[in-house]
Amino acid sequence: MADYIRTYSGVQFYPTEPDPGEFRIEDIAHALSLICRGNGHVRSFWSVGEHCICCAKEAQARGLGKRMALACLLHDAGECYLSDIPRPFKKSLPQYREREDRMLEMIFEKFLGSALTEEEQKDLKKIDDDLLWYDLEILLGEPMSEPEPDVRAKPDYTVRPFEDVEREYLELFRQLSDGV
To answer: How confident is the model at residue 85 (pLDDT cuts 50, 70, 90)?
Structure first.
């Protein structure tokens, strides 16, 4: 067995030794549109790509600018190379989290020009957590003890073909990366 994964675009990608030159937005959009949130334990399919699109739209609705919206769109991009691991389990995997954090920093440097500032990281986490509230409430039927977050671009959980999600992800990426 090889120590690499073959991406959708045909790149031999070494997840333990990532090369930023091998990150392809087409691979990210394609893979994230096919990876299910909640490790598949949801009432209906909802992709990580769809979640990222919603996060980017929420950043725009909050007036955070193109850079933050693009960061939100890309915030789970490492999962296209490493897979999605549920938060409760991920907390117990410090080496995985270190690798994932490093890969995401590389992705931000490639597509945003630099890593996120502390303030940008806080804004991104707030948006991600606010939308997670809806994922848990709607996709999992998890009763939430916290009040409903102030979300300006509430997600629409209509199931769409992965090709539509992939196309929207790429279109949004092109719009947001223009001038960043």
So the answer is: confident
Q: Is the per-residue pLDDT at 179 higher than 80?
A: no
The C-alpha atoms of residue 154 and residue 57 are separated, in whole angstroms, by: 9
Rounded CA-CA distance 160/116 in Å is 31
Write the CATH number for 148: 1.10.3210.10
Domain of residue 70, residue span: 25-177
Give 151: exposed, middle or buried? Use CB within 10 Å, 0-12, 13-18, 19+.
middle
Q: Which residues contact 123 (CB under 8 A, 6 or more apart)?
A: 59, 62, 64, 68
- Decide: 124 and 116 in contact? Cβ < 8 Å: yes
43 inside domain: yes
Q: What's the distance, Cα to Cα, between the start and end of the chain in Å?
A: 39
Q: Which candidate, 126, 113, 110, 137, places its Cα nearest to that of 55?
A: 126
In the chain, the percentage of residues whose pLDDT exceeds 90 is 88
